[in-house]
Specification:
The protein is mainly β. The strands form 2 sheets. A 4-stranded antiparallel β-sheet has the order 3-4-5-6, with no helix packed on it. It has a two-stranded antiparallel ribbon with strand order 1-2. The chain is built from 1 helix and 6 strands; from the N terminus they run βββαβββ. One of its GO terms (molecular function) is sarcosine oxidase activity. This is Sarcosine oxidase subunit delta. Pfam families: SoxD.
Length: 91
């Protein structure tokens, strides 16, 4: 799989680290219940199909990216710089 980094161009997926789903919103740590933090950390969907994911370009520019791809085919639809993407925004 090749990911097109907005800064470095098309690169092999081995240059990137995968974090997971780009949509969950972290609960406010000071006001969050233990159950809410547990759900945020441990309970994640594993959808088949279109999915927004966080990837880190560790072997390149060190940017965090939001990659929209189909988990069945690995076809990448979009790559955006994470800091320019509204957190938790629907794709």
């Amino acid at each position: 799989m090749r990911i097109t980094c907005p800064y470095c161009g098309a690169r092999d997926a081995q240059e990137f680290g995968y974090l997971g789903d780009a949509n969950p919103q972290r609960p406010d740590g000071m006001d969050a219940t233990e159950a809410a933090m547990h759900d945020y950390v441990h309970l994640r969907d594993n959808p088949a199909g279109r999915h927004r994911e966080l990837w880190y370009h560790g072997a390149g520019c060190h940017a965090w990216l939001v990659v929209t791809r189909d988990t069945r085919t690995h076809a990448i639809e979009a790559v955006e710089v994470a800091r320019k993407t509204k957190a938790g925004a629907a794709a």
